[in-house]
Amino acid sequence: MRHETVASPEEAVDRLEAIYEAAVEAERAALDRFVSGGAVPTEAERAAFRYPALHLHWNAENLPPATRRAWAKLQLPGDYATTVTQPAAFRAYLLEQLRPLAGEYGVRISVGRSEQEIPYPYVLEGGDELARGGVSAAALARHFPVPMLSAVGDETADALWKYREGEPRPLALFDAVRVDYSLRRLVHYTGSDWRHVRPWILLTNYQRYVEQFTGWALNELARPGSPYSRLVLPGGASVGREDSPEAGAELVAAAPWQRFQMPAYHLLRGDGRDGVTIVNIGVGPSNAKTITDHLAVLRPHCWVMIGHCGGLRQSQQIGDYVLAHGYLRRDKILDELLPPEIPVPALAEVQVALQEAAVQVTGEQGDALKRRLRTGTVVTYDDRNWELRWSQERLRINLSRAIAVDMESGTLAAQGYRLRVPYGTLLCVSDKPLHGEIKLPGAATAFYQRAVSEHLAIGLATFEILRGQLDGLHSRKLRAFDEPPFR
């Protein structure tokens, strides 16, 4: 199918939606026929099972105006392209990227069918549509496109792609098949439809933060004038403004969050796009990398880690906060993709917002706030029992001037840097392993009751501050010199 030039970004997204919906409908119809004992798809039919492609051409005749915007910018004249999935769901994002490129650069936009086939599991909504008929997976794989891990990768994000004369440069970090892969994994891990994930994401390593979040969310839904409209729970149930507080609490209590490895809760705003998601990622850098690999394809505005850490300084108290401005990465999980010697910078916009939010929530500032909130380096380990290697680790901790230790923050920051998602870390000291202060059961309960609610409130207030700073938030610190145009 040839690519057709369109007159506007809006027409481009309309055409992407039409091509995608036609491809999905054709593949679903062929699958239904096959599992019902009908014919296999012909070569001509299978040619329709393809993602739409989006192409831009810039001849550099129109020199763009100077802008401080870090995204929707072109460095070199020529062709740019990507494949697109779920264009209706990503419509607002696509228009946000295309409008500056069309208006400021005068790019020519064209749309058509790509050569990239849609794997058949990605056109199924419920997942059990093929249960009838006794058709085996091997039989389906002979006649329909299947997910091929060899075709799914992060070469663009990891700067591994190579320019070849005559081929377009990448328009986006992720192509359609990479996005579809992650959308399905998000459903698996979080127990949520990926469409409910909001652009402001809190990541935590303790269920108690989730309990505080759901309590706050129910209060927001009951509050007159609140901008929030619905709380979506793991497993698919939801609480709306029309539900009584008692009914909402029952729905939250009944949510089967234990069935999912990293359950997620989503508080939606009335505009249908904004809101806050919280994910309990559990403990460890492996989970931290796994979930952010998949969340990144949704191009969120920011993710912030709120959780517990061990304080490494005598002057710290249980319940104090740590605002990370640097990371000693001892998690090892990203060493091949982002070597430890590559600095992961703190993002000024997020750091300032976190500190301003702490002032708002605690009511403290100046020296009073500094006594409770300390800025410094966090060391992230892959070994929960790192203390047993203290004689080997003490030199690195001393050289780094680290003030806290955890198992997720360095990974989450590195993933944000690697995948161009703004990030931040605000931790709460729950024990002091080097100074004999551990979480005894009674002390732990008192700590949780006192600290978790305030800590969560600071994270939420941070997002309120950042909502009005999107141009600065999506910083040039996260973009390479040969970056794809799309954010």
UniProtKB/TrEMBL annotation:
Protein's UniProt name: AMP nucleosidase
GO terms, molecular function: AMP nucleosidase activity
Domain Nucleoside phosphorylase per the UniProt entry, residue ranges: 269-458
Name of the encoding gene: amn
Function according to Swiss-Prot or TrEMBL: Catalyzes the hydrolysis of the N-glycosidic bond of AMP to form adenine and ribose 5-phosphate. Involved in regulation of AMP concentrations.
The reaction(s) this protein catalyses: AMP + H2O = D-ribose 5-phosphate + adenine
One cellular component (GO) term of this entry: cytosol
Gene3D superfamilies: AMP nucleoside phosphorylase, N-terminal domain (3.30.1730.10), Nucleoside phosphorylase domain (3.40.50.1580)
Family to which this protein belongs: Belongs to the AMP nucleosidase family.
Cited InterPro entries: AMP_N_sf, AMP_nucleosidase, AMP_nucleoside_Pase_N, Nucleoside_phosphorylase_d, Nucleoside_phosphorylase_sf
Domain AMP nucleoside phosphorylase N-terminal: 11-167
Keywords in alphabetical order: Glycosidase, Hydrolase
Any one of the GO BP annotations: AMP salvage
EC numbers on record: 3.2.2.4
